[in-house]
Amino acid sequence: MQRYPAFDPPEYVDWSPDPEVMRQFRATIEADSGRRDCVERLSVERLVALYAGMVRFRLHDIFLKRWVRQGVISKAWLGTGEEATTVGPVHALDRGGEEGDIVGPMIRNAGACHEMGMSVADMFRGYLATADSPTRGRDLHIGGREYGVITPVSLVGSLAPVIAGLGLAFRLQGSKRLALTWVGDGATKTGEVHEAFNLAAVQRLPVIFIIQNNQVALGTLLDDHHAGADFSEWARVYGAACAAFDGNNVLDAHAATRWAVEKCRSGEGPVLLSAETFRMGGHATHDEAEARELFPPETFAFWGRRDPIGCYETWLLEGALDLSTGEPVAPGSAVESNRAVLAEAEAAVTAEIESAAEEALASRTDMPAAESAVEGVYGEWPDTSNPGPAPFY
Amino acid sequence: MAVITYRDALNQALREEMRRDPDIFLMGEEVGAYQGAYKVSRGLLEEFGEWRVRDMPIAELGFTGLGVGAAMVGLRPIVEYMTWSFALLAIDGIVNSAAKMRYMSGSQFKMPITFRGPSGAANQLAATHSQALDSWYAHVPGLKVVAPATARDAKGLLKSAIRDDDPVVFLEGELLYGSKDDVPEDEDFTLPLGVSEIKRPGRDVTVVVHSRPLHSALAAADTLEREDGISVEVIDPRTLRPMDIDTVLDSVRKTNRCVIVEEGWPVCGIGAQIVDDIQREAFDYLDAPIARVTGADAPHPYAANLEQLHFPQADLIVKAIRQVCYRD
Q1: Residue B268 CA, distance from chain mean position
Q2: The model's pTM
């Protein structure tokens, strides 16, 4: 994809595929026969949609970063470098809106919102806090009920039991739906997450938890808050099914989640997935310098070579499938036609994001009215002499 | 009408509502096979099965979140805590998740969930199992808070709480479960949230009181009528948020004197809010400073004699009423 030197992590600016990293990328998919079969069956449309989804997420971040620099917003929480852990799993779900599966994204999984069907314009409006934002300006953590995205609880760890509760509701309703959320390595240290894992496991709820280990909890390195086993071992102690996937390999993420979805649909949930990945920036836009000081440069270089978009793009370009025809070809013989297909997809997404940004900026003429601050605190205020919440004094 | 216990009145409310609406389910520690730590859920597992009467592990925060999630997709969970003192572990889920979900989602998600369980002192269960944290919850926009003092109110208000589309904190008196009252057996009987009730009409002084201390206040009123000829009007707000303050104000404008009683601690208590409302709306009607009788400003002691002293007993209320009537 086109690189954006002013906004990309430096490791991405002149990104080119590292042969060893690409060998590992392919080996990861080959390692498990179930996942390999799943990947082999993916349609061209799906393959391109996974690519477009990650590009959409990256551009969403880049546009937000630009707004921070321009002073349009004060800061933004980005998923740069972690796109595969979000986009791969979401594409494994039934994205049927109000009747489909439900996700509870952390702020670092913003890409889940647009891949579930929310418009990027609405996501941007969330940041701009316009009156027409999904939360009417109440929060930048946005959800979309009609798209199967719950409005996140911003406290880390708090989403885990809420998602388990969705699973409980689906069981009670006799439905085949499932719920999925991500749990950061930082949030794995909250008691709430462990309560949720146990509650889901003991009741066999159709829920997928993805432990997204990006190696850092705001400014605390993994080693400083985690002395236990590999996250992929955790599920066993709860009596839940588990698997690990490469958090920078969208195909592995997708295939592993497909497997987890099947488990849940057949009543063998919950599933704990774990993914190793890396946050290529700060906790938010304000502390990118601190993040660079926190890790040695080699760590950024290591993960920089594993840019999930660059790796996947390379895999598609050099692969044994002609994306323009859908026909199998000798590996590496359809590079140019595949490049054209991906460029077309990227151009469409870029245009989508540009127009979403324009639309959202235009909404700033309509900021939330003062009286709206005390509206919607309750659904129904009892018929009583008490007037209820007072407007601003 | 039938004379039944507060416990059975709650049980009737749960049963009738669960029969009426299949989206309602009960969850909490020991609510199923054990039939509730205080036997409020007796017989419900048998009638409704294990998916609608869900036993939960000792994980108050976790199962509160479970309830919140279930409420987001159309169910109406009733979350039982073994006591409200133990629900301190769950307060993050109640305050940060349940109370704010409608607001923070821009009204995309409603939150029809009832949190209920016993509150206040019991018999010698000491400081971590005796607290009346009513004002903590009443402080929070997004929550409704109900604290019934009688079996009739318990039934009628719990039914309304369950039917409400907002999160309701329902504080049951731990020592009220065995108390008896005339309770309508009619399935359609409900009492609206946010409506005070004059429990005893009077002319000379207004007492505002909720939950178990209501019974202390009524005893105090009897004593004062008999010994001093003072006619006490006793008002139970029943709902602490939103509180029907007009009934209190009307009474104070009539009696010109007021005593506010609560089981909780004095600082920033429910009574402090009522004092604020009265001084703002009825200042010129007052003939004496408002008095408050509260739980002692200390953790609850275990020793039975000290525990008694901690509670706003009738003799303290008598003393406070004489004081505002300048009869002490």
Answers
A1: 17
A2: 0.95
